[in-house]
Task: inverse folding
């Protein structure tokens, strides 16, 4: 059994053990869940340690044919694109568990669902076979449906139903695209991902475009791309805050990750659809930013800022060059850290005051200096202030976009301005000014909460100051991808 | 032996950081820990002094290679700046002298500063200053020297402000710092020009680099560096900052304005000897400004009645003479003058507090009656030739007026157009406002000011945001989300109805009959 299988099945084993755990003893349940997520985190760091940065090839490959007729296989592998996502998934799951202590009803079901969700997430990022990928993709839906629907806020039922419907519709399109490619000759050896990659080369141009559009809808719902984001504000607002962390931190990245793989498979179509992609990206960036600016609900604000930030990812992908793709990947990681930190902190605040309306707050800095420090740093990261990870990724995406479209990037700068406007206003209203009644007798973050927020904030600042390790992690894979793409485009 | 040079600036730096962290964390506090602070600071500077003397000895025995490079600090394109040090000649002797003076003064300060409120602060800053000064003289390139130069300037600012509760001290400190920043412009320009024209700022390669420069280029660079040197060494027209800087405690005045930091300007000019040799005009500028300063300081010094001011003017007079010597080409004479002056002035400043006691029966010689009768000269001397007022009139006031006009423009034009940032406090600030609110006399408060921008740009933004909000609400949230659900529900209900209808017995019988009919 390879290390990747070990990593993938660790949360699944956790699920199996949790099933037999006594449902009254919440302490034991929490310990088991923490144990298995920490194990997965350590394993993913071990994978990172063994990973060869300089090689662009898939590493730690595992291959076990499942259905020879269809060509599907249990194929796992890691490359520079999935490596950061892997770490993000295991890290944010651990952090979400740290933030899960306020959940007290039906604890067993909750932790079961989270471990199942982690299993699905790891499956998505590890799978090197589209069939496996699709199964894992759908697998994430089930626990999320319950997590939002059972432990969510007032409108949780609508939110979870909405979320599942949107994603299901999206995945239907994705499935159709996958089937459309698999009609073609799949005689190549290797997993379904590599053989479909070969098959996609032989497809007629117009079919490629249709297939990519299918992928765009499928992944675009998850990402979310501008008109398909309807599920996001509701789901993020209604989900309990640990789930919001996972939703915006990792779930959204699944869409972007899939889109990178799809674009890599169909570069000609991507090249033709480039104007569509870039306009969706730019509209999404401004649209999300402006709506974030209008929200009085803190969680809704972060949710819409996610739409804006994922627009930057789409922009990077659409640029189809080294700089842009690096920017997209960096933005995925940095947004994972930033939005997770923001949701975590807002969730902790909500626990104390039970209001998410920003106008109810003021002067938090007097009672909660540590909270104030963390949230300001996280918001600076969201704003893309130099010295934070957000700046590095936005800069890469901006340069990539500039190489491709030049002056159009002025729209990008408007987004930066808008994001600065809402981030600074949030800092002002939350932290400064006279203390409002909600701010009285608030406890500052305790040790556990500090550790959770501290890890994320250190990531945001640390990678902002020393970005090279992350850039080099995926540099080889990305340059290999870009070479392939440019060969196909010639 | 060469590698020892790194420790010379490093040890006082570590001491400074240690004392500062101790002070910030509360470990070093009050009178009890004075011995610890003093021990750390003294030990570090004594060790540096010993190392510097060792290095000097090694240099005199020709054991040194002349330079030490620690690798690259910054490299981009064809620009490459190293971290390097000079380990021979003038620089090492000066480092040894300065570290000796610094260690004497630090020892002196232990007793002098005893029971002062800012004891620990003083030692932290002075250690940092020692490190900066030693870096300044030992660095092998202009960028390293500039680092030391700037940190020394910052330390001087902090120590002039030592008694920060007194407004005069803070005003003077700011004035001194700003004046010194003028010189920094020259330094930075000089560095940039040398990089642009020669591609390097290494002191060690200066001779070969200068050979490629034309006279006009050399003159431009030399003039930039002499601006920096003039401000640091308090030459006319920058002299007034020196008397303002006397605000700090005596030991720091000694080390900053008596012997060590003030010599940095002359040191810089001496380092640039090959460059100045190539630029006769810059040499002439050195002579002119040096001579004017010497005369000016002599004249002003005649009427000073307090010890520290007269010493300050004596210092700038001597420095002026050193510039004249440099300008005339007597470089080694200027260097000897610099070293000798540093020692003498250090003694002068350190004994200044007890001067009255020492000269009790030995009154100061009266001024030559021929000069004393010149009334205008007396006024000019008392007013220090109106240099401060002149600077105020020529620089400070126009800038203040410009700032005033710009602020007006900003408030009345830019803010109107771009909008203002929302005030931090959207809450009630006064009782009157509260009452007005109770009466409902605040029409603009009735609508929610949360997402309303001010100014034209703000209005556009909020307009767009409302349109998008409407779109989001109508189409995306309600349209796809809610309406689709409702539609699905309706469809489900119809299907249910249909099914119920179909499953009624009469239809079922009819169905079965039809099937049977068709079957046969």
Result:
């Amino acid at each position: 059994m390879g290390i990747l299988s070990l990593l993938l099945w660790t949360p699944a084993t956790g699920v199996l053990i949790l099933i037999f755990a006594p449902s009254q003893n919440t302490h034991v349940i929490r310990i088991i869940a923490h144990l298995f997520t920490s194990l997965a985190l350590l394993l993913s760091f071990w994978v990172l340690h063994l990973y060869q940065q300089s090689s662009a090839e898939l590493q730690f490959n595992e291959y076990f044919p499942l259905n020879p007729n269809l060509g599907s296989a249990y194929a796992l592998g890691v490359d520079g694109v999935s490596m950061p996502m892997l770490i993000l998934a295991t890290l944010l799951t651990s952090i979400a568990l740290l933030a899960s202590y306020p959940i007290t009803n039906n604890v067993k079901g909750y932790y079961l669902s989270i471990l199942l969700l982690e299993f699905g997430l790891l499956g998505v990022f590890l799978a090197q076979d589209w069939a496996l990928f699709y199964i894992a993709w759908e697998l994430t839906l089930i626990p999320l449906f319950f997590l939002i629907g059972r432990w969510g806020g007032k409108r949780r039922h609508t939110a979870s139903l909405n979320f599942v419907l949107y994603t299901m519709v999206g995945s239907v399109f994705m499935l159709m695209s996958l089937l459309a490619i698999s009609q073609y000759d799949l005689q190549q050896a290797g997993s379904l991902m590599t053989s479909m990659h070969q098959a996609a080369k032989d497809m007629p141009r117009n079919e490629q475009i249709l297939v990519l559009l299918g992928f765009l809808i499928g992944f675009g719902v998850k990402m979310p791309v501008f008109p398909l984001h309807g599920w996001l504000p509701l789901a993020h607002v209604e989900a309990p805050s640990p789930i919001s962390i996972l939703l915006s931190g990792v779930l959204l990245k699944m869409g972007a990750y899939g889109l990178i793989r799809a674009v890599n498979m169909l570069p000609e179509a991507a090249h033709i659809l480039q104007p569509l992609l870039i306009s969706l990206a730019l509209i999404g960036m401004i649209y999300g930013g402006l709506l974030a600016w209008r929200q009085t609900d803190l969680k809704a604000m972060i949710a819409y800022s996610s739409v804006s930030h994922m627009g930057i990812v789409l922009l990077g992908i659409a640029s189809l060059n080294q700089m842009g793709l690096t920017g997209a990947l960096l933005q995925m990681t940095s947004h994972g850290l930033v939005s997770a930190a923001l949701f975590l902190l807002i969730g902790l605040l909500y626990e104390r005051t039970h209001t998410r309306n920003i106008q109810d707050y003021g002067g938090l800095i007097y009672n909660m200096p540590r909270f104030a420090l963390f949230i300001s740093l996280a918001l600076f990261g969201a704003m893309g202030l130099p010295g934070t990870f957000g700046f590095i990724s936005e800069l890469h995406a901006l340069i990539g976009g500039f190489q491709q479209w030049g002056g159009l990037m002025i729209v990008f700068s408007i987004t930066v301005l808008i994001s600065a406007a809402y981030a600074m206003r949030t800092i002002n209203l939350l932290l400064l000014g006279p203390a409002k009644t909600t701010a009285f007798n608030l406890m500052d973050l305790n040790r556990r909460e500090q550790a959770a927020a501290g890890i994320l904030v250190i990531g945001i600042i640390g990678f902002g100051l020393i970005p090279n390790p992350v850039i080099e992690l995926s540099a080889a894979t990305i340059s290999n991808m870009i070479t392939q793409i440019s060969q196909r485009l010639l | 032996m060469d590698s020892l040079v790194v420790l010379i600036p490093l040890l006082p730096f570590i001491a400074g950081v240690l004392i500062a962290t101790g002070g910030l964390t509360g470990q070093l506090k009050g009178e009890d820990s004075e011995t610890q602070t003093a021990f750390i600071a003294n030990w570090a500077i004594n060790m540096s002094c010993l190392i510097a003397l060792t290095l000097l000895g090694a240099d005199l025995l020709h054991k040194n290679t002349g330079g030490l490079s620690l690798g690259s600090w910054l490299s981009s394109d064809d620009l490459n700046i190293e971290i390097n040090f000079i380990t021979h000649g003038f620089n090492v002797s000066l480092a040894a002298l300065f570290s000796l003076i610094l260690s004497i003064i630090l020892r002196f300060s232990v007793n002098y500063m005893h029971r002062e409120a800012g004891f620990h602060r003083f030692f932290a800053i002075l250690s940092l200053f020692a490190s900066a000064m030693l870096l300044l003289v030992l660095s092998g390139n202009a960028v390293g020297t500039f680092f030391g130069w700037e940190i020394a300037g910052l330390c001087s600012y902090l120590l002039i402000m030592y008694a920060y509760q007194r407004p005069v001290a803070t005003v003077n400190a700011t004035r001194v710092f700003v004046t010194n920043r003028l010189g920094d412009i020259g330094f930075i320009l000089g560095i940039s020009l040398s990089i642009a024209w020669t591609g390097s700022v290494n002191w060690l390669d200066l001779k070969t680099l200068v050979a490629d420069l034309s006279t006009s280029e050399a003159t431009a660079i030399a003039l930039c560096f002499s601006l920096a040197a003039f401000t640091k060494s308090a030459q006319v027209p920058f002299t007034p900052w020196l008397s303002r800087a006397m605000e700090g405690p005596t030991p720091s005045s000694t080390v900053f304005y008596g012997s060590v930091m003030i010599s940095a300007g002359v040191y810089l000019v001496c380092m640039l000897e090959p460059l100045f040799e190539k630029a006769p005009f810059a040499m002439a500028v050195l002579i002119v400004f040096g001579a004017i300063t010497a005369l000016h300081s002599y004249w002003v010094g005649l009427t000073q009645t307090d010890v520290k001011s007269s010493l300050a003017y004596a210092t700038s007079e001597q420095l002026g003479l050193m510039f004249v010597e440099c300008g005339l080409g007597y470089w080694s004479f200027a260097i000897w003058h610099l070293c000798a002056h540093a020692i003498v002035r250090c003694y002068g400043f350190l004994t200044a507090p007890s001067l009255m006691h020492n000269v009790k029966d030995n009154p100061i010689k009266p001024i030559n009656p021929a000069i004393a009768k010149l009334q205008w000269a007396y006024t000019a001397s008392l007013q220090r030739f109106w240099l401060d007022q002149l600077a105020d009139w020529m620089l400070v006031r126009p800038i203040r007026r410009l700032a005033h006009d710009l602020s007006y423009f900003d408030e009345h034009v830019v803010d109107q157009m771009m909008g203002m940032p929302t005030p931090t406090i959207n809450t009630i600030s006064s009782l009157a406002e509260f009452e007005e609110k109770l009466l409902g006399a605040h029409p603009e408060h009735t609508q929610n000011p949360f997402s309303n921008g001010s100014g034209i740009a703000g209005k556009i933004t909020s307009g767009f945001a409302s349109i998008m909000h409407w779109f989001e609400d109508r189409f995306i949230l309600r349209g796809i989300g809610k309406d689709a659900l409702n539609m699905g529900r309706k469809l489900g209900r119809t299907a249910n109805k249909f099914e119920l209808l179909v499953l009624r017995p009469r239809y079922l019988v009819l169905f079965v009959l039809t099937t049977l009919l068709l079957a046969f």
User: Anything to note?
Assistant: Residues 273-490 of chain A form one domain.
